[in-house]
Amino acid sequence: MATTDEPRILSEERAPASTSRTETAVIGAGSYGTCLAIQLASAGHDVTFWARGADFAAELQATRENRVYLPGFRLPSAIEVTSDLERAVRGKAIVMGVTPSHAIRDVFGRAAAWFDPDAVLVNASKGLEDGTLLTIDEVYRQILPPRIAARATFLSGPTFAGEIAGGMPSAIVLAGRDVETTQYVQRAISTDRFRTYSSDDVTGVLVGGAIKNVVAIAAGVSDGLGFGSNARAALITRGLAEITRIGVTMGARPETFAGLSGMGDLVLTCSSDTSRNRKVGLALGQGKTMAEILGDMRMVAEGVKTTKVAHELALKLGVPAPITDVMHAIVHEGAPAGETMQKLMQRALKSERG
Predict the structure, then answer these.
(1) Which pLDDT tens digit goes with each residue over 72-100?
(2) For the packed helices 302-317 and 322-333, what is the interaxial angle rounded to 10 degrees?
(3) For the whole model, what pTM was predicted?
(4) Alpha-carbon distance values, 112 to 28, 148, 257, 267, 314 (Å)
(5) How far apart are CA 215 and CA 221, in angstroms?
(6) Is 191 exposed, middle or buried (0-12, 13-18, 19+ CB in 10 A)?
(7) Distance CA 32, CA 160 (A)
(8) Which of the residues are catalytic?
(9) pLDDT score recorded for residue 19
(10) Going by C-beta distance under 8 Å and a sequence separation of 6 or more, which residues neighbour residue 211?
(11) What pLDDT shows up at residue 331?
(12) Which superfamily, per CATH, for 210-342?
């Protein structure tokens, strides 16, 4: 994140990898949506940036800075801010969705009527839908025109908003079922500071990106309790095994979870003080209640909702998920953090492959 008082224009310092200027949209003006709007502008594209609420959109357009969610970074001139969803979506070749996962059905259900038939939707949200237990891909297939849903792509990986906006080197994975479309988006969004890898394992990329937030809360709880580095490393490793079991049962490939949306994102989110989900866990480990923690937070920590959904999903699939179960008890049932985390160490001994 910027350390000076004045917001910086960084995108003009970067060399675009894209060869053609494209009309794009970013839907969602949180920290990650803001950094991706800056990234698309730095890749040489025109960006219509949708923010919920006319007053907030007007402030962003006037000040050229998201002082609420990503202060310190100036919006390049190629970004136009609006609160008009139709204006943001209509006629755009690439539409990037960066709303909280629980808002996807509402926002993109409304936007569906305005997509250009050849538009490509790029999801950058992480989570599972509460109630239905659906992945974002499955939600898209329910609410979007079939061609839009079939060609949608899904962005995930170990990236923090401030570092992308600041032009620091990052690598990310883009999954899609249509190879040509995925490669088109891959070329369009990449720069010499933002390297994009392609994948065709949509389910694996989505599951890894969602459930790693549950493990990040667990790692934060462990650190908040003072359990040390050994315990954090164990949670990351066994958390990856748990995510992989769930994902493979849903049809994902196991090797996906060794990649950027699996191990990469898990390590980053569990280890960095920048992680909102880890901060939730730290506060729980230090004795705060969920009501106190959520009252202090301005930005969404997706892992809070995902813990409930992942717990229900694992039960439905019949997949052992002890870390998710323990986190559900702590986050949603008010179980004492120290005593409940200790139960992970008291389970029956088993093979590491189990």
Answers:
(1) 999 999 999 999 999 999 999 999 999 99
(2) 130
(3) 0.93
(4) 16, 9, 31, 35, 31
(5) 10
(6) buried
(7) 8
(8) 212
(9) 52
(10) 128, 242, 243, 246, 247, 306, 310, 324
(11) 96
(12) N-(1-d-carboxylethyl)-l-norvaline Dehydrogenase; domain 2 (1.10.1040.10)
Query: What is the crossing angle of helices 322-333 and 229-249, to 10°?
Result: 100
17 pLDDT band (50/70/90 cuts)? very low
Q: State the virtual CA torsion across 126, 128, 129, 131 in degrees, nearest 10.
A: -160
Whole-angstrom distance, CA of residue 12 vs CA of residue 3: 19
| Block residue for tokens 């392609």 | 198
d(CA 123, CA 152): 7
Mean pLDDT along residues 203-215: 97
**Structural contact between residues 127 and 101, judged by C-beta atoms closer than 8 angstroms:** yes
Is 196 in contact with 189 (CB distance < 8 Å)?
yes
Six token digits for residue 46:
């025109």
What is the maximum alpha-carbon separation in the chain? Answer: 60
Note the CATH number of domain 11-200.
3.40.50.720
Segment among 6-20, 31-45, 75-89 with least mean pLDDT = 6-20
CA atoms 23, 27, 30, 36: torsion sign: negative
Average pLDDT over residues 63-80: 97
With CA atoms as reference, report the closest residue to 151 among 188, 187, 130, 180.
180
How many Cβ atoms from other residues are within 10 Å of residue 84's Cβ?
A: 12
Helices 202-224 and 136-143: crossing angle, nearest 10°? 130
Instruction: Tell me if 221 sits within 8 A of 282, measured CB to CB.
Output: yes
Residue type, 323: I
pLDDT band at 233 (very low <50, low <70, confident <90, very high): very high
Q: Where are the domains of the chain?
A: 11-200, 210-342
pLDDT of residue 16: 47
